[in-house]
Amino acid sequence: MGVCNEMKTNIAVFASGRGSNFAAIAKAIKSGRIKKANLALLVCDNLNAPVILKAKKFKVKVALVRRDIFPTKNDFEDRIIRYLKENKIGLIVLAGFMRLLSLGFIRVYKNRIINIHPALLPSFKGAEGIKDAFDYGVKITGVTVHFVDGQMDHGPIIMQKEVKIEEKDTLESLEVKIHKVEHKLYPEAINSLIREKLRIKGRRVIISNRQSRKRPQSDLR
Ligand code: GRF
């Protein structure tokens, strides 16, 4: 993938809140479940977010960028891009980042921004994916990891994993089940993105194993 440090991809996680996915990714890099990656930066827009303490625990640099101190969204995003460039970021991982990135920003990191959504897209888009699926009464929901494009919860899908909703489930027990799957699926998707060759063809993401190719190919197309 993109920009590497000693052959490692520098990752920036963007988060606004709790940071359980941030911690899962940090642990997966530490334990080698995500290979050839360096968790170089946390970008956070919320001064009181618990994810900041988690970044300190894992000794990850924090870029705190509050939207309210910038006159425009453009200025806010320019500041973030500066942090990303300074840290030679090759992959942006959104994990509970409560802002929509502009098309201009997405173009700068084309096919290098991914997101996790706690439902099986295209169902139950938006901020309440777990609750909306539960309230709707579906028997199967799940988790989606996808590329980010200009629309919310919309880009090409990299991986999905289903989660059954049993009769005994409450919203709280479903949340626990979804997060457990997220913490496994996101590291798996990141590792695959870094280690394998992915091609985006229309809405489809095609994964082919790099090791099986004669020449290493490093660019996402
Ligand atoms: C996750 O459920 C993720 O799917 C959604 O936001 C939530 C973030 O949780 N996009 P956490 O901050 O990683 O605990």
Describe this structure as you would to a colleague:
The chain is of the alpha/beta class. The chain has a single domain (9-208), classed as Rossmann fold (3-Layer(aba) Sandwich). It contains 6 helices and 10 strands. It has helices at residues 20-31, 51-57, 73-86, 103-108, 129-136, 171-195, and strands at residues 4-5, 8-15, 37-44, 62-64, 91-94, 113-117, 140-147, 157-164, 197-201, 204-208. The strands form 2 sheets. Strands 1, 2, 3, 4, 5, 6, 7 and 8 form an 8-stranded mixed beta sheet that branches. β1 and β2 (8-15) form a beta hairpin. The chain is globular. The model is unreliable at 212-221 (pLDDT under 50). Residues 15, 17-22, 95-96, 116-118, 182 line the site of 5-O-phosphono-beta-D-ribofuranosylamine.
Highest CATH level, the class: Alpha Beta
Number of strands: 10
Question: What would the average pLDDT be, to the nearest integer?
Answer: 93
Molecular shape: globular
CATH architecture: 3-Layer(aba) Sandwich
> Helical proportion?
25-40%
What is the first-to-last residue Cα distance? Answer: 10 Å
Secondary structure category: alpha/beta
CATH topology label: Rossmann fold
